[in-house]
Amino acid sequence: MTSFVEDIDEDVGAALRLKESLSLRKISSAEGFCFEVDIESDGERIDKFDLETLKRESGEEFYMKDYIKDPELKHQLLLDSLNLDEKMGEFEESLPGMQDLIPDGKIKKLVIRKSEKEVVSTDAKISYHYIAYAQGKREPVDSSIARGQVCRLNFSDGNTYEGLFIALQSMGVGEISKFWIHYEFAYGVLGVPPRIPPRGNILCVVEMLSVIGKQEIQNVAHMSREELAHLPFERIMESVENLKDEGNKFFGKKNLNSAISKYRKGIYILTNYSALTLVNHGIHSRLLGTLYANIAQAYLENKEARKACVAARNGIQLEGHPLKHKLFIRFAKAKAMLQEFEDAIRLAQKAIAALQPDMKAEGKDYDNFLEEVKRCKEAEAEDLRKLYSKMMSGKNNVEGEGV
User: What whole-number distance in Å separates Cα of residue 341 and Cα of residue 246?
Assistant: First the structure.
């Protein structure tokens, strides 16, 4: 089944190797800078980083895992940042020093890095990184780092297993902790073979990245351009991500007006947030383009073709967005709905041209749509010919009677 609403496409292409390293402080400032690409590297992926130098030059704490696309390297960097190694999966060496999180001791916790903030509230939405090992398995059974996608959870939904849900509720922003979770609070007696064996206890590391309450999201959506400029980029993105997720849920339930409202709030925030640097501009544009693609589809489903045209056009104007083919095809469908078939054909052709080679299913759908629009245009032309012929025939009869 085709998915109409989108998440951010994380694949932004292979990295280029530079002859000399760049200072992140210079990149994030308004100063200009020059760099030279090493054309002799044959596109080889960068796989070595001086993490301490980069931390020092950035002037703030950050993890290179957020900028690296190689899953194994990102996974290892997170373990390194936590002073963990391959023994992480050895349960017997992990239990000493852990404290009981619940009275029966079936969930245990060891804080690796403390949080300076209070624990998360029960109505919050959180984002976190997660690495999990199952007892008897040397390799992690799950890793958000390896998947290249931050985990997100709405506590009101509780869409995770009970042990992890309890563990997350004990954490604060910035905290990194290790948890041992008894199988009764994880995947049960049966497990999930072959990844998680029967009665498989879980050992995991969690890094709490951000927490945002429902009221905070609403507050951001009603801020002025000047007020938004004072918020950190991460806060803006987290608020908009949550609005997008809420919109997607409403869309899935066919509550189109509510979905449109959520998407519009997200678009408002991003289009009015001006405190962008070269580093985060691309992330901002990808999320904004995704919102335009989603709201265009919602407008189409709601039979609001003119509004779908405006949304798709705005998304297309963003540079380098990975969903541009979907923006073009939704623009084309809106034009077809308005019976502007020539424009619809032109936009459908652009959608096909924007497809990647591996998008065969989309290519077939787009080709079918294009042929359908062409038939509609031909039928319209035939109807016009018949109407013109009828008009001319009537005119000749009138002229004959007047002779």
Answer: 34
pLDDT digits (tens, 9 = 90+) for 112-141: 888 877 677 666 778 888 888 888 777 788
Q: Is 197 left (phi over 0), alpha (psi -120 to 50) or beta?
A: beta
Do 366 and 329 form a contact (C-beta atoms < 8 A)? yes
Residue 352 contacts residue 363 (beta carbons within 8 Å):
yes
> Tokens 């951010």 sit at which residue?
8
Q: Is the pLDDT of residue 398 over 50?
A: no
pLDDT digits 0-9 by tens, 40-98: 433 333 333 333 443 343 333 333 334 444 555 555 555 555 545 444 445 556 677 88
Which of left, alpha, beta for 108 (phi over 0: left; psi -120 to 50: alpha)? beta
Q: Which residues contact 197 (CB under 8 A, 6 or more apart)?
A: 134, 135, 136, 137, 191
Asked if residue 314 has pLDDT above 60, the reply is yes
Hey, what amino acid is at 390?
K
Question: Would you say 329 and 369 are in contact if contact means Cβ atoms under 8 Å apart?
Answer: yes
pTM value is 0.53
